[in-house]
Structure formats: C-alpha cells, structure tokens
Amino acid sequence: MIKHYFIAACAAVMTLSAAAASAQNAPVDQQLVKRGEYLAKAGDCVACHTAKGGKPFAGGLPMATPIGTVYSSNITPDKDHGIGSYTEDDFDKALRHGIRKDGASLYPAMPYPSYAKVKPADVKALYAYFMNGVQADPTPNRGVDIVWPLSMRWPLSIWRKVFAPNVVADGADDNSPIVRGKYLVEGLGHCGACHTPRGIGMQEKALTDDSTQFLSGGVVEGYLANNLRGDARDGLGSWSEQDIAVFLKTGRNSHSAAFGGMADVVANSTQYMTDEDLTAMAKYLKSLKPVKDGVAPLAYDDKTHQALRKGSDQSPGAMGFLNNCAACHRSSGKGWTETFPTLAQSATVNAGNPASLIKIVLAGGEMPWTHKAPTQFAMPAFGSRLSDQEVAEIVTFIRSSWGNNAGAVSASDVAKVRKDLPKQTADAANATVAKQ
Predict the structure, then answer these.
(1) Which residues form a coiled coil (predicted)?
(2) What is the number of other CB atoms lying within 10 angstroms of the CB of residue 215?
C-alpha cells in the first residue's frame, strides 16, 4: 500500500513539475505584451521608475514628500531587486492596492489610489509587458530618507483603509469617448495625483468629479499643476477639445507650452497615445464644470502693448520685462504661437498661486521634444541675474498687463521659491543675488 502511495505521489509531483515547465515555456502572447506596453506609456510608468542617467524602470528616482524623500522602486523583471519573482496577483496588489509582495504598504507617492480604477484585464496586459517586454536590471532599491518614527510603514496600512478606494472589476465595456476619457484621466493617467490639491493626510482631496476639488490644481515640485476644470481664467474654459488633444500630443498649443513635470508627461507618455484616446481625454476634461461658476473670461487689453511701444511706462516691472522678456514674448504679451508661449490670458499667469511663473523665471524651462513637434524651445534661467525684488516686479507686471488680472508678487514670495530650487541652480542664483 505504501509503495502505491509513493508511486502516486511521485507521479503527481512529476505532473505538477511538467505543468510548471510547460507554463514557463509557453509562448508569450506578444499582442498582450504590446498592449501592456501601450498601457505602461499611458500610465507614464517610466517617468517615476527611472532615475536620471539610470536604466529604464530600474527605479531610484528621488521623490520629495512633506516627511522626507522616497525613491522609486525597480520594476524590471530582475528576480533579486526587481519584480521578477512577482506573480500576477502580487503585481496587482502592488499596482492597485498599494501592498508590496512582503505585505508592507507602499507610500502614496505610488498613485495606487488612481490605479485602483484600472481594470483587471489591463493589469494582466501590464504584467505581461513588465515580465516579457522590459529588460531586467539588477539595480538595488534604495531605502527612504525619512526619519524615524515617520519612516515606520505600519501607519500606511491605516492610510490605505481611510483614503484608498476599492479596486474596480472587469465589466461590460462602454466605448463612448467620454467614458474612455474618464477611465484614462482618473485611472492610468493618474492626472489627479498632481492636479488635485492634497489634504492634511497628504491624500488627494477628491478622486473623481463628485467634487469640484478634483483636478482643481495642486503644487508639485514647486510648480503649480494647473486647474484642469472649466474655469475661464485659470482652467481649461477657453481651450477647445482640439487644443487639449494637441497639447497632450505635442506639448504646446496657442494657449501654452508644457514645462516642468508636465513636459516629462508629454515626452514619455501622452505623445505616444492614440488620437482617439487623447480626444477622449479632452472630451472628459471639457465636461468638468468650473470651480467658480459665472466668472467671465479675461479679454485682451492693448494699453500695455502701446505703452511699451511708446516708452511711456517706465516702471521697474515694465523696464525689467522689456530688458529680459520682450524679445521672445513680445511687447504685446502674445509671444509666438507654438514657439514662445503667450502671457496674455495665460492660465499659468493668472493662477491664484504664482509659484509656476516665479519658478520658470528663476530656473528657466524647456518644452518637450515630440515626434509631432520635434523643434525644442527653451527659456533660459534668470535667477542668476535678477534679484528677488526684480523678479517680483517683472512677475507682478506680467500678471497685471494685457488684460491679465492676478495678484501682485512680493520679493519674499520669490525668495521662498528660490530657496527650494535644485542646489546647482540655487547656488548660481544666490551668488548673483549676494553681489547685488
């Protein structure tokens, strides 16, 4: 009897081993891998999981949070340092639930509250891509630069239960453009992670359009991630669906140009998306009502243009603008379409928070290079030649000219932004300011 059991057990083990070997040697579904690659681009995974000068998806990118710096993880299929030993279920738990394979909770720098809306069928495609379409790399993961006790991870499990939504299930597909756009914006695109203000718990104040706080603007790396709702002055109220789609495809349009983190989004993600998906995203964004109803759009006023042409405005702000900005943005404030952005009626210029405008003046900016718009334009940094007071005068002038109607900026406002500049930029800027 024991002999029969032993033979049966051996046969079972051999059957399981053969099945496992067969699964490992099964042909890869290249169509699924290709779809996963597209979805990974739509989710802009490479931007966060690739350090400057590092291998794609090998992690190590520092991300500042209010409690310290966290570093993105290696998500290549390396078995020792990446996710090569992850099952599809492990992958899903990390992506949509915020739980690592070892059971620890992820920091919400990983936008799993948005990815909770990604359908299981798309998770399957993403898993296929990361396991079969990405080059394994042995770059070790870095620990967080967060002091104890804030570095303890167990409170993150409470955070997840309070702020992270339930994950979605596969269901009947609704292929209408606005539903598709909602899925991309709220889910894979995780637009709210940057463009929605954060609460005291560092949570997004809204994850869907149930609240007008959703996509109403947030601050990321010292930049204001603009209001994407229908507000006429500081949102997308004056943009058409085509304006939005063109911006996502090329990083520029007649209203603005991508800069900061958004330039990376266009370069790594949205330029590769289909026109149908970009149009769907645009349709959804245009469906969002404004934060403030009944606010009239700004109208262009030519008085500033004429005063600059005649030399009748000798104020410090006007002279600073002429000496540093007018060559590209013109005395009309209208710039050059899709080359040097307009300042007149610009949402960035008229935003209540002037952080982006100040930072661009101090540190400069660069448009993304895209296949549809390969010419890349850049604005030089002026922080090394202008004092805080001079920057404040110029920015205040811009925010109150050509029909713009935004508040004044003080030298102390500029000093706060300058303090948070990357070290190499700040050193040069501070050296010049010290001489003045």
Answers:
(1) none
(2) 29
CATH 2.60.120.260 assigned to domain 303-435? The reply is no
Packing angle of the helix pair 423-435, 411-419 (nearest 10 deg): 140
Segment 419-424 mean pLDDT: 74
Using 50, 70 and 90 to split pLDDT, how confident is the model at 24? low
Question: Percentage of residues in the chain with pLDDT exceeding 90?
Answer: 78
CA distance 286 to 362: 32
What 3-state class would DSSP assign to 180?
helix
How far, in Å, CA of 230 to CA of 251, rounded? 20
What is this structure's pTM? 0.87
Q: Is the peptide bond before 374 cis (omega within 30 degrees of 0)?
A: no
With CA atoms as reference, report the closest residue to 114 among 45, 52, 36: 45
Helix (H) or strand (E) holding 219: strand 218-220
- Work out the pLDDT band at 34, boundaries 50, 70, 90: very high
Amino acid at 434: A
Tell me: pLDDT of 196 over 90.
yes
Residue 334 pLDDT: 96
Those residues whose C-beta lies under 8 Å from the C-beta of residue 271, and which sit 6 or more positions away, are: 248, 249, 250, 251, 368, 370, 371, 372
Residues 6+ apart with CB under 8 A from 199: 205
Burial class (CB within 10 angstroms; exposed 0-12, middle 13-18, buried 19+) of 15: exposed
Q: 171 with 159: CB under 8 angstroms?
A: no
Instruction: Give per-residue burial for 275-296: e unless 16+ CB within 10 Å, then b.
Output: eebbbbbbbbbbebebbbeeee
The β-bridge relationship of strands 218-220 and 68-71 is unpaired
Show Cβ contacts of residue 138 under 8 Å, excluding neighbours closer than 6 positions.
Answer: 78, 80, 81, 82
Question: Helix or strand or coil: residue 90?
Answer: helix
C-alpha distances (whole Å) from 26 to each of 17, 18, 20, 22, 208 are 14, 12, 10, 6, 40
374: helix, coil or strand? coil
Amino acid letter, 265: V
Q: Mean of the pLDDT values across residues 9-18?
A: 47
